[in-house]
Specification:
This protein has 148 residues and is mostly beta strands. Helix content is 10%, strand content 36%. It contains one helix and eleven strands. Strands 1-2-3-10-5-8 form a six-stranded antiparallel sheet, with no helix packed on it. A five-stranded antiparallel sheet has the order 7-6-9-4-11, with no helix packed on it. Strand 2 and strand 3 form a beta hairpin. The longest helix has 15 residues. It is globular and about 45 Å long. The termini are far apart.
Length: 148
């Protein structure tokens, strides 16, 4: 009986298989009662909330929902990571340093580069719910110098 070595790539695939098997498909509405909402980081006002849809916010690649009360402003801040966003409900104005203010309506996509200061205000009578996909870990840092 002869023993044949297992190629290194096959070993890596076998070792990675359990981690991939833990991932599950997900489809969830922004207003689902199954969502678990938590307070936003302390740089934001009370009432701002986050729900983690997928991933670990302390690691790269998390997907979250951000819920902002009507009339509430998220003050000048930045994120280490780039963020890809789509508004699910409400009307949200977003102003990035060096760019014109944009008004997001449901279905509007927006991209924010990592490290670029910005602020946002929910300008609708209903809460603003924003889907955000982060490249890196989820954080929020006070932006020095404002966005204007």
């Amino acid at each position: 009986m002869s023993i044949h070595p297992i190629p290194a790539l096959a070993v890596l695939v076998l070792l990675a298989a359990p981690a991939q098997a833990q991932e599950r498909p997900l489809a969830m509405a922004y207003d689902s009662p199954a969502l678990s909402w938590s307070p936003c980081p302390s740089v934001f006002p009370e009432g701002c909330e986050l729900a983690v849809l997928h991933g670990d916010p302390a690691r790269p690649g998390a997907d979250v929902l951000l819920r902002v009360a009507p009339g509430q402003t998220l003050p000048d801040h930045s994120h280490t990571s780039a963020e890809r966003m789509m508004l699910a409900s409400g009307r949200l104005t977003v102003k990035y340093r060096g760019a014109a203010e944009a008004t997001l309506t449901p279905g509007t996509y927006a991209f924010g580069p990592g490290g670029l200061a910005h602020r946002a205000t929910c300008v609708s009578a209903e809460p603003c719910v924003l889907f955000i996909a982060f490249d890196g870990a989820v954080d929020a840092l006070v932006a020095e110098g404002g966005v204007d």
